[in-house]
């Protein structure tokens, strides 16, 4: 990749995250914990000079609100980029995970639930389309970049940046209130 580093952050906890609901293209507000996680991101980034960084944010409300809190001290403008929106979950949007999980399916493969569910959501986007969107995003970068996105999209951006297959998404850590950096083929958490 020509421009590095890439800082990747996920939005703070939302009401629907707390309820274990699929959000996809839908939105729910940040919880008190989610706003605290956004502030935690601001504290992490306080020790890092972001001048010269292109800041890109998913246009979905939860990501934009997180970015506004986390970056207020350092960034004058937030630029939205639809390629950073969360993976579409089609007919599962707004449903509880327990309503869609196959009988006997593990619910704890990752903090976000089984990643395989995102691949098989009826009328959902699927990993191939998400990967193409993330490749397009990364290919458009012209400067070091900080992006605020979502759980599955965050993993896919990092997988693509690291040259890893989509099958490795579950190997990449997730979570809210953390900043991940991809630089020179190395993945680390700030």
TrEMBL record:
Binding site for substrate: 10-17, 62
InterPro entries assigned to the protein according to its UniProt record, in alphabetical order: His_Pase_superF_clade-1, His_PPase_superfam, PG/BPGM_mutase_AS, PGM_Phosphatase
Gene Ontology CC annotation, any one: cytoplasm
GO molecular function, one term: phosphatase activity
Active site (record annotation): 11, 86
Classification via SUPFAM superfamilies: Phosphoglycerate mutase-like (SSF53254)
Superkingdom of the source species: Bacteria
SMART domains: PGAM (SM00855)
Keyword terms, alphabetized: Glycolysis, Isomerase
PANTHER family named in the record: BROAD-SPECIFICITY PHOSPHATASE YOR283W-RELATED, HISTIDINE PHOSPHATASE FAMILY PROTEIN-RELATED
Protein name from the UniProt record: Phosphoglycerate mutase
Organism: Tateyamaria omphalii
